[in-house]
Amino acid sequence: MSQLARETKVKDLLEKQKFNQKELSEMTDPQIEYFHWLYFEDSVYDYM
Question: Has this prediction a pTM greater than 0.70?
Answer without folding.
Answer: yes
